[in-house]
Amino acid sequence: MKEGSISDACEWVSHRSSGFRPKVGLILGSGLGLLAERIDNACRIPYAEIPGFPESRVPGHAGNFVLGYLSGTPVVAMQGRAHLYEGWSADKATFPLRCMHALGIHSLIVSNASGGINPRFHSGQVVLIDNHIDWMNRSGVNASEGASGAASMGVPHRAGNPYDAGLLNLAEQLAIRQGFALARGTYLATLGPNYETRAEYRLFAKLGADMVGMSTVPEVLLANQLGLKVLAFSIVTNVATPDVQKVTDHQEVLDWSRKAQSQLVPLIESILKDPI
Ligand code: HPA
Q: 6-273 in CATH: which number?
């Protein structure tokens, strides 16, 4: 990883993309990289080339910053993300989001893969995240701290309603037009990297979680501090069965999230057709 400040990263990306100004940021999680392949006039920059960017080492996460047009909207997409379980601090893992913000985005669409805790969910189902539980306990960063936004012991931040009500409604309406109903759910984020024991799945159900995963909350908290509108989707890749002995594996997670792309990709494209 190269060192660098937000302005170094932003300058490098602007230089490589001939001054492209995205309006919407996309963070594409496990298996969802296909959407980045659909970006028109794409300028694709590997994270390794951008000063200060953390590189994801997780299989299924490509590691490119992709700028161009999706449904006519200027976007910047992260094809793969860095996770806290890889050893990155929340500050470092969210560095690319700060860069997107510096480039000019006003809204952020996030996707992830998750384990379904709610027994009504099934593998391959796309769920709208309308609330979250921060079980990472170290996802907070301070947007106002210095050029890199280094985590600090500063003032507490508001996290009352991180997901934009208007975008949640829009996504639901457009999904119905596409022929399916989107459920809403509460996403609980753990630090990982381990999937849950059956006892943990049972505990998280009692805490009110519908899905569990290892990402998203650090980005969403920072996006809120930066004043961005946030919409987040979770692809349920495995449904927890606390009473049956069954092991969750990464290949199953990738396979199901790839299958769900046939619903989620057209949905995100239709969302971007509206001026969000
Ligand atoms: N737990 C945590 N993260 C996940 C899971 C899970 O069961 N499935 C996909 N990501």
A: 3.40.50.1580
